[in-house]
Design a protein that fits this description.
mainly alpha; 9 helices; globular
């Protein structure tokens, strides 16, 4: 998650900076390479292949589409054997949803809403799932609003919600 947030931070500050320099481009490329290396080092070959096939690295490197790349990675991980790790990640993401700057919130929310498809996500207390997404509908950042809608859609099949 830290690399995904760092990548978003680097991209956003490349855009908001007065001039995009080669150093700033290199920082984005370096973080993308670190993510690729990490996936391969922990043998996430299928996830890596999905990111390659679906242009996930380009999505992650785009300021406008970074959240889509994060969602693609989360969906790829959901279909893998790393399901138990995703349960832990789900619970670790909750603090990021409320705290941190815009980059933290967007990145964490993009990953979180994809994980709501997991049956284990149904055990989350309402204040971390439904209430959080309802608040997201009123958020000043339009991407958070859109991701909140997607999260609520992912929860449609939850019994009793």
């Amino acid at each position: 998650m830290a690399l995904l947030v760092q990548l978003h931070y680097n991209i956003r500050h490349n855009i908001t900076g007065s001039v995009m320099s080669q150093d700033k481009d290199d920082s984005v490329s370096c973080v993308v390479m670190a993510l690729k290396t990490l996936l391969l080092a922990v043998r996430c070959y299928c996830e890596f292949a999905v990111m390659e096939k679906e242009q996930g690295w380009d999505l992650l490197s785009s300021c406008e589409d970074h959240h889509r790349g994060v969602g693609l990675l989360a969906r790829a991980m959901l279909q893998s054997t790393y399901y138990l790790d995703l349960q832990r990640i789900l619970y670790l993401l909750v603090p990021f949803l409320e705290r941190g700057d815009e980059e933290h919130q967007i990145t964490a929310t993009a990953f979180f809403v994809e994980l709501l498809c997991m049956s284990e996500a149904r055990r989350l207390p309402d204040k971390y799932s439904i209430c959080r997404l309802k608040r997201g509908l009123m958020h000043e950042i339009s991407v958070i609003r859109a991701l909140s809608i997607k999260g609520l859609i992912n929860m449609v099949d939850w019994p009793g919600k």
